[in-house]
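#structure-requests
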Amino acid sequence: MLYPVDIIYIRRMKKDSTLQIREVSELNCRALAAASKTVGCLKFAHHVQAYFLRGGDYKVPTIFKVFQVHDGKDITTRRVEAIQEGKLAFLLVASFLKEADGLEHQEAVMPTVPSPDMLLSIEDVMEKSSLEYHLSSDENKKKRLDPFPIDIRVCNPDILTRLSKPPPRLSYWFKSREKISDDPTLHRCVVGYASDLIFIQVSTNPHQRGDYVIRTL
């Protein structure tokens, strides 16, 4: 939970987590939520850039420091620093814009993929392939199949098994496991969380090596 400390500080109390990959995604989500709390209710995030400077540690509390970079009539900009044990672990820059009618176009074509009801959940895929996400203790290994808060159905589950070298493409369905309100800010935060759970693996698909360290921007 986020607690306002003063006008620009919001502190997240530490919470048990079973997978470090979830902590990374959570930093992205909560930093955007912290920035949104300092912006008027008529503006919504429309552009976000995030930088992971250190691996997140789920064992310690996180302080989100929000900088009011710009407050314009139409556009507002915020910079968020996520600090753990006095060190900068994560940086996010987000701009907020009033909703308005504008130009729209869509060139992408929906690919032909199975419906989500025909696919295994990511937990089932992980169990089937005995996949482990950088687990470092027996306790974490016992918890590795705890459900993700996002229901993810991967259309090509072989990319998670590391049994092949698939192309750098990924198709998957996802939705929140819990019913959420119609608050557009909350929906943006959920998408921010979900987008970093497994998407980074797309770039590593053709390699399938274990001797590199992944850093996301």
